[in-house]
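tool=predict chain=A
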Amino acid sequence: MARDRSHPPSAACLSESMRDLGYSLETAIADLIDNSISAGADTIDIICDVSGEHPVMVILDNGRGMTEDELLDAMRHGTGNPRQHRSPQDLGRFGLGLKTASFSQCRSLTVVSTRDGTVCGAAWSLDRIDAADDWILSILDDADIHGLPYVERLGDRGTAVIWRELDRLMEDEAGDRRDEIVNEKLEAVGRHLSLVFHRFLSGEIKGHARISLTVNGRPITAFDPFCRKNPATQVLPEEIVRIGEAEVRLQPYVLPHHSRLSASEYDYYQDRSDFISNQGGYVYRNGRLMAWGDWFRLVPKGEATKLARVQIDFPNSLDEAWTIDIKKSRARPPHGVRERLRQIINRITARSVTVHRGRGQKLFQESQAPFWERYAD
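tool=predict ok
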């Protein structure tokens, strides 16, 4: 008869391996913002301070905060079973994001939270885990907490996620260009967040207050990939696919030709040319953009669909059907959605062609070309 025994993995090996799940700085920070929004925050500030001897990244929010028991649970790897029922507004998935996203960028993760004026804190150090080969979590006392950077900005409720030992952010950043290179990375973060959370930033998500988001004090404004404020954007009828008791909503758009944009719109979208070229489906889970610029192998990207975009909304109750990955940056539509999307593509192709096809007219760029510098024959 087989014998059972507990056979846990090496904490040192597993913690180091989980650093390389494919996060970028942008996707890691977005994962933490998911937690802030799920906690009811409407103000989120990202602070990156590399001026001192010990660089630090801090994500501050004014969400509901946590008690110490809740904080300790949040610091544990795998705090939520993805098969269990979640709140319809919950942007989480596996209960891993806080840890995996943070450790993809740093070796020291500290979380301080306040609720009703009561403060608590805890910290993971990869170096301590490595030395002990055990999951040693530090529970902070008041003196520890008050010595941490930027925690004084927390009010009676809210949470601060503090990254220190930023080996991934700082690994190539030395010499006179360090600040310049870090600023370039933060600029990429701002652009990413302005797209991924554009519907929260514009206040169009039901049940959520409009959020305010800053990076080093600079406000992040929503970037609408569908150019909906322009009257020349074509809004096609919404379609609904039912999967069990849940609904997937598909809203097609055809973007205007560049000649129909105002000078300010032209400059704005030209600055975001890598986004404007991303024809395809834009997949939203609970209003948060998960994946975009992809036709999911239904059709190749080409001239006929250059201006086509389809907003696809699904609830978190369909996570398993969409095979959401741990970074929440990949999603594969279930069969019923793929078939409906194929039909939509066929219908909007003709509309897209009429917008941009014509002798001598400039076309929206392909991803490898300069902005709007291709011409029809």
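The chain has a mean pLDDT of 85. The longest helix spans residues 335-356.
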